[in-house]
């Protein structure tokens, strides 16, 4: 078995890098052979990044057992590396993806896939020319409560959707990267884009967006409310933002009004997911104890093995989400709706 395992390098040992490492280590069909980070203490395992989903980011493994590089380019060029997982700061995504394409190495790319839609298009072009697998890490599509919602929408379990509201609000991670909106894109691009992508996943491409927002932590948009307009579709709104470090628990959830029921997810409630129907007691919906990160990596590996596109998240999906995020930023700047062109 060990001879058939794909050899993986993880670029970047921030919160997402550690989270992905924990997921890779659960698999028997891969071998983690290299990591990169410019911080020597992270490379040694002496320090570890934290974040809103720290319970998933143990990242505990023997750093002495893998090749360690301060420069991510050296990790990609390592001849022992067959597959690359890009968890670098966003400003390096285009360069890292282009290098993977040049060396014909398939890669998983954390969101946001690029700082702008133009950068995402650059990646899409080189990936198509190289003919390799490139999958965006759109993990919300795999998250149990959201995966359940998508399944109900597609099945028409409760009738058609009339309206939907999504929320994602938490403390700013802090540090030089997140505090510099020119690098991170602010909360609109780092946090809110999860819900933007899920709206795309559930309802298709909107024809226009109307967004309201303001900068606070980073100098870019750090709190945003967006209305996604669809022709003959439901009313859909998403709110996302960063707050100063405080004791308010991280909030993520949704309220979706179907013709025959209302589905509500509240991360901080017990139970978190309930369905409400007229004249009936609320129904608690049990969710599987599974990690969206594990599921997305399984989807990536399945696509790599079969040679078929990923079933749940393709690179064109990541590009479409980047286009919508650009339009949201532009709507805030202009103070008016922005039509979308994909």
Short description:
This protein is of the alpha/beta class and 342 residues long.
Provide the fold topology.
Blueprint: E1 6-11, H1 15-24, E2 30-36, H2 40-44, E3 67-69, H3 72-77, E4 83-86, H4 93-102, E5 107-110, H5 117-130, E6 134-137, H6 144-155, E7 161-171, H7 175-178, H8 181-184, H9 186-203, E8 208-215, E9 221-229, E10 235-243, E11 251-258, E12 262-266, E13 273-276, E14 283-284, H10 292-306, H11 315-334, E15 338-339
Parallel strand pairs: 1-2, 1-4, 2-3, 4-5, 5-6, 7-10
Antiparallel strand pairs: 7-11, 8-9, 8-15, 9-10, 11-12, 12-13, 13-14
Explain how this protein is built.
This protein is α/β, with parallel strands linked by helices. It is built from eleven helices and 15 strands. It has helices at 15-24, 40-44, 72-77, 93-102, 117-130, 144-155, 175-178, 181-184, 186-203, 292-306, 315-334; strands at residues 6-11, 30-36, 67-69, 83-86, 107-110, 134-137, 161-171, 208-215, 221-229, 235-243, 251-258, 262-266, 273-276, 283-284, 338-339. A nine-stranded mixed beta sheet has the order 14-13-12-11-7-10-9-8-15. Helix 4 runs parallel beside helix 5. The longest helix is centred in the C-terminal third of the chain and has 20 residues, at 315-334. It is globular and about 60 Å long. The N and C termini lie far apart (43 Å). Mean pLDDT is 94; it is low at 51-59.
């Amino acid at each position: 078995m060990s001879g058939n395992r794909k050899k993986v390098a993880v670029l970047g040992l921030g919160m997402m890098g550690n989270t992905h490492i924990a997921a890779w280590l659960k698999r028997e069909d891969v071998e983690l052979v290299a990591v990169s980070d410019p911080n020597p203490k992270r490379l040694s395992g002496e320090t570890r990044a934290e974040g809103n989903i720290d319970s998933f980011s143990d990242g505990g493994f023997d750093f002495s057992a893998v090749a360690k590089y301060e420069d991510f380019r050296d990790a990609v060029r390592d001849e022992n590396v067959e597959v690359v997982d890009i968890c670098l700061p966003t400003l390096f995504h285009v360069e890292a993806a282009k290098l993977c394409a040049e060396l014909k190495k398939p890669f998983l790319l954390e969101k946001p896939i690029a700082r702008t839609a133009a950068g995402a298009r650059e990646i899409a072009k080189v990936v198509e020319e190289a003919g390799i697998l490139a999958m965006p890490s759109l993990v919300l599509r795999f998250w149990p409560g959201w995966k359940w919602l998508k399944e109900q929408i597609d099945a028409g379990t409760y009738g058609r959707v009339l309206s939907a509201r999504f929320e994602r609000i938490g403390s700013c991670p802090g540090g030089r990267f997140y505090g510099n909106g020119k690098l991170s894109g602010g909360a609109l691009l780092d946090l809110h884009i999860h819900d933007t992508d899920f709206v795309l996943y559930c309802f298709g491409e909107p024809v226009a967006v109307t967004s309201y927002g303001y900068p606070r932590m980073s100098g870019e948009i750090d709190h945003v409310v967006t209305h996604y307009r669809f022709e003959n579709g439901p009313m859909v709104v998403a709110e996302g933002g960063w707050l100063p470090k405080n004791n308010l628990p991280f909030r993520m959830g949704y309220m979706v009004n179907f013709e025959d029921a209302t589905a509500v997810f509240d991360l901080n409630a017990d139970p978190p997911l309930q369905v409400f129907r007229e004249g009936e007691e609320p129904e608690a919906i049990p969710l599987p104890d599974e990690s969206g990160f594990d599921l997305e990596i399984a989807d990536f590996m399945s696509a790599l093995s079969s040679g078929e596109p990923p079933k749940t998240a393709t690179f064109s999906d990541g590009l479409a989400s980047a286009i919508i995020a650009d339009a949201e930023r532009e709507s805030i700047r202009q103070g008016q709706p922005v039509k979308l062109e994909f």
